[in-house]
Amino acid sequence: MIYFDNAATTKPDKLCVMKAEKYLLDDFYNPSALYSEGYAVSTQLKQAALNILTRIADANAFNLIFTSCGTEADNQAVFCGGRRGNVVTTLGEHSAVNSAVNELKQRGIEVRFADLNDDGTVNEQHLLSLVDDKTSLVSVIHVNNETGAINDILSIAKRIKLKNQYTLFHSDGVQAYGKINFKLSRDVDLYSVGAHKIGGIKGCGALIKRKNLIIKPYIYGGGQQQGLRSGTENIFGIKCFEYAALNRYENLQENFEIVKKINETVRSGLDKNLFGFISNSNCSPYILTVFTDGVRGETILHEADDNGLIIGTGSACSSNSNKRYSRVILACGYRESVADGILRLSFSPENTVDEANQAVEILNRIVKHRKEIVG
Predict the structure, then answer these.
(1) What is the pTM of this model?
(2) What whole-number distance in Å separates Cα of residue 261 and Cα of residue 239?
(3) For residue 112, how far is the Cα from the chain centroid?
(4) What are phi and psi of 134, to 5 degrees?
(5) Which residues pair with 192 in a beta bridge?
(6) Which pLDDT belongs to residue 319?
(7) pLDDT(322) > 80
């Protein structure tokens, strides 16, 4: 079986899981407990936070709140940051941000949406035009989860701060963390990451925040994590996240080149008479989104699965929506027939060029046959 849906989730890294297993079976203690074993676990919790944080940020300027997932981190950023005036975001956000800001609208907060370019990047001039002296929060996804488009969040955040220094800037970095090389600047106030996109396990994420930024908690209870996120911490998941992050960043450039080669193999091998491309060469190589006009993406997905190839048709988190077409693809300016034929292939460093060649053969064969049936 060839697995090319890594943007939805990655296979947990076996070595990371095995290394973290002691915090599931042996050192299972509550880190808030006062006895020595609990204190020892709390020390490991702090070490994990530091290791995850410092891959992309200065520990003197930022700290980290563990969450249950990237969605929770996005929700905390949106609901704690967008509490007044208006909120500005893009039409290309993950559903965790899109649904959250739409809930803000129901609560009386004005929400403004910036247009997208055809690859899924935000139209920066339009975004900036929406920011005014009443804008409390701007949220711009770092790497678009449907197209792989990379937004220059450091430049965008700086330009927003020049326009309104009091506006908070948040970015969903779930598809960027552990995959592309960057460091957060102090113009970024909040940044969301998740474990299961880089070989960690599901059920663990984090919200990175600027240290002197005061935000309210999103989940209340026992006051864990300095009162910013109550709930007994998932030590096993957090340690898996830590080990996966260390592994990915130790091999960041090597992994990037491996995935880039796989992406290029698929891109060059797909029949241009059958497929068009949404993702361009400036997008993250971890995601390659294509389309075939006249054949439903879902049909190809199921037939590919029958032939030993697992791919997606867009965001897995949007598959529960009753909307037939991706709002992100439509916002990029594509017509519905294109949106109906979307396929998202997403890669990991564990994939191979041989798998890429096999995937190309499978997809070309399926779509050619389907086109012939349609006539």
Answers:
(1) 0.96
(2) 31
(3) 22
(4) -110, 5
(5) 172, 207
(6) 55
(7) no
Q: What 3-state DSSP class applies to 5?
A: strand
Could you give the CA distance from residue 284 to residue 374 in angstroms, rounded to a whole number?
34
What the block records as the tokens of 326 is 């991706």
| 248: nearest Cα among 203, 309, 193, 209 | 193
- The helix or strand, by DSSP H or E, that contains position 205, with its residue range, turns out to be strand 205-210
The closest alpha carbon to 242, from 370, 3, 55, 25, belongs to: 55
Q: What is the C-alpha separation between 206 and 73, in angstroms, rounded?
A: 6
Q: Report the C-alpha gap between 191 and 19 in whole angstroms.
A: 27
Report CA-CA distances (Å) from 46 to 31, 42, 87, 233, 242. Answer: 10, 6, 33, 11, 11
- What is the β-pairing status of strands 190-194 and 168-172? parallel
Is it the case that residue 272 has pLDDT exceeding 90?
A: yes
The residue to which tokens 């970024």 are assigned = 188
What is residue 128's predicted lDDT score, i.e. its pLDDT? 98
> HSE on the CB side for 58, CA within 13 Å?
10
Say what the pLDDT of residue 316 is: 57
Is 90 exceeded by the pLDDT of residue 89?
yes
**Amino acid at the residue 307:** N
What string of DSSP letters covers 64-127?
EEEESSHHHHHHHHHHHH--SSEEEEETT--HHHHHHHHHHHHTT-EEEEE-B-TTS-B-HHHH
**Torsions phi, psi for 205 (to 5 deg):** -150, -170
- The average pLDDT across 238-242 equals 98
